[in-house]
Structures are given as C-alpha cells and as structure tokens.
Hints:
This protein has helices at 7-12, 16-26, 31-35, 37-49, 54-75, 77-85, 107-117, 149-161, 206-219, 228-231; strands at 127-131, 141-145, 171-174, 188-191, 196-199, 223-226. By secondary structure, the protein is an alpha/beta fold. A four-stranded mixed β-sheet has the order 4-5-3-6. The chain has a two-stranded antiparallel ribbon with strand order 1-2. A hairpin with a 4-residue loop joins strand 4 (188-191) and strand 5. The longest helix has 22 residues, at 54-75.
Amino acid sequence: MKRAFSKKNLWENTPAGLKRLLGAGLSVVPLPYLLGGEFRRWRQFAAEADRWDAERIREYQLAELRRLLTLAYEKTEYYRQTVRSVGCQPGDLKSLEDLQRLPTIDKVSVRENWERMLTRPITDRNVDLVTSGGTSGEPMRFYMGSSRHAPEFGHLTNCWSRAGYQPGDVFAVLRGRVIAKPTDGMYYQYDPLFRYPYYSTFPMSPAALRPSLAPMNRVQPKFLHVYPSLLF
Length: 232
C-alpha cells in the first residue's frame, strides 16, 4: 500500500527495537514539541474556535467550503464537470444552504471516477493510499494528502482535552492497527513516543483479550481509545 513520506509514517514503520532506543531519549521532550509547530498551531486554533459564536462559525464554515469547492473545481476534472452540470461556479456559493445545489456522490461514484477526482498525482510523495474499515461492505480505497495529520491530531486532542486528556498522557489503543506478529502470544506493541500500548483488534476475542490486560496494566493508562463494539 502506498504511504507518503511523512514523519508519522516514518515513525510507524520504524522497527520496534529502534523505537525503544529512540523513545528513551525522546521521552524527555514534551510530546507537543515532538509533534511539531504545525500540530501546536492547529491545536491552539481548535481551542480558540471552541469559543466562537454561531455567526463566526458559519462565516468560517462558508469560507472553508468555498476554498474546498474552488480547489476541486480548479484541480479535478470530475468536480469541474459536476459543478458545471448544475450551472454553478465556486463563486456562486453565498451561504451554506447553497450547498444543496450540488449533487452528492456515493461509493460507486468514487470507485468509478477516483482518478478524475484527484487534485495531485498519486505518485506524489505526500500522498497516502488509505481504506475505510469495510464494516458496511467492501472497504473503500482512496488517496489523502499527508498534510492532514497535524490539523487532524490537533483537533482530535483538543476534543479529548474536554475529558481531561493532555498530550503525553498514557492511554491504551484497541483499534485500527494491524500487527502481523504476536509479542508474548499477544498482538500488541508499545509506542514509546505517544506512550501507549496498541493492540490489533482483528485477532481479538474474549479469550485473547484477557491476557492482553497484563501489559496494559503495567503502563497504567489514564484513557482507553477503542472501538465501542470491542469495549462492550
């Protein structure tokens, strides 16, 4: 699967042994600084945006929607033809309600037109090939820019802060990551940078979950980041 050349992907693909060695030194640096200035700026922006009134929120939403529509119109063949087909231009978007003028898409649309939807070549070093979970059927494959990581994690950790989380707090992850080889009979690894054990949920069962609690208890996580279906 194609992965972008990014700090996140480089760290995730670093061998576990080397991670442990690097983690020993990196652990003394506060996590927000390890994640970089872009992460800190987005997290601060998210915290400030929490205090906006409804009018400012709608203004920001409309401005971002215009920016996104303009990008799609100028950079992709599919969306340019789609927007033109309903007699619309990016500048015609005057309110959030105007979005109703644009046609929607579905999985079939993406599968049949994905090459015409791209805003940059798939060979670009900053593009990831990702998939959906596939819980509702065949997984969806699509491409995303690696620049999404900083704003995504900035907003995410700001949301978590409402429950008391601060970057660097220890938590356990039981979701979304495939671990090919077991450690001590369990499909888990420990990330010394983010300070959490993460478990592959695909081979997970009630019998497999019980022994997994031992390494989880050793790190004493303050939070769990899990699929609700696995938790309950």
